[in-house]
Known about the structure:
Elements: H1 2-35, E1 44-51, H2 65-79, E2 82-90, E3 104-105, H3 116-141, H4 146-156, E4 165-169, E5 175-176, E6 179-180, H5 189-203, E7 212-216, H6 226-243, E8 247-248
Parallel strand pairs: 1-2, 1-4, 4-7, 7-8
Antiparallel strand pairs: 2-3, 5-6
Amino acid sequence: xxxxxxxxxxxxxxxxxxxxxxxxxxxxxxxxxxxxxxxxxxxxxxxxxxxxxxxxxxxxxxxxxxxxxxxxxxxxxxxxxxxxxxxxxxxxxxxxxxxxxxxxxxxxxxxxxxxxxxxxxxxxxxxxxxxxxxxxxxxxxxxxxxxxxxxxxxxxxxxxxxxxxxxxxxxxxxxxxxxxxxxxxxxxxxxxxxxxxxxxxxxxxxxxxxxxxxxxxxxxxxxxxxxxxxxxxxxxxxxxxxxxxxxxxxxxxx
Length: 254
């Protein structure tokens, strides 16, 4: 009985010692589990078109494409859960422009110990640098071939992994050496259709069928002329949705 009583008296001490060993192990296991937490995979293929034309300059008459790019890009990439992002410039001849930036992987390979949030933040920063580099190059070539830029991004953004999303930072004022949209009559649906016919006949359709197109800066040059702005925006909606079979979403319009 004496032995049992002594054992009983010692048991709280032993329990405390065992607890002192177990608690750190539990904490270590919890830390390991938190490190191995996997974020939702980012799979959306995305594209960014940046306008380097004169009207995109940071002047009173311009729409400041750089400011709008910086203001909308991060939000776009996050909202649309972009897994990759490709780039295209708006220049005098966008489709053949030498301005080229490599695709950025926004959900890079990782293991159980990777801090995915930090990794993705770094990837978005890399995408922002690439987009600004594309804009800097486009400014040196000037011109405003929006139609060609849409064709190029349609050829560049991969398909097969969900609906592609394209952010277009431009006022959409098509003005290349062969065609100036500002000189066209856009005052009725029939007249706009004829202008679209001209573009399609000369350039073909941009391969953006089924894509979601998010304009930023569309029609800003007509901000003081509401009637012209309405006709201009109608033209692009009819061209992109009616002909090219894309979907226009204005949520990032600035």
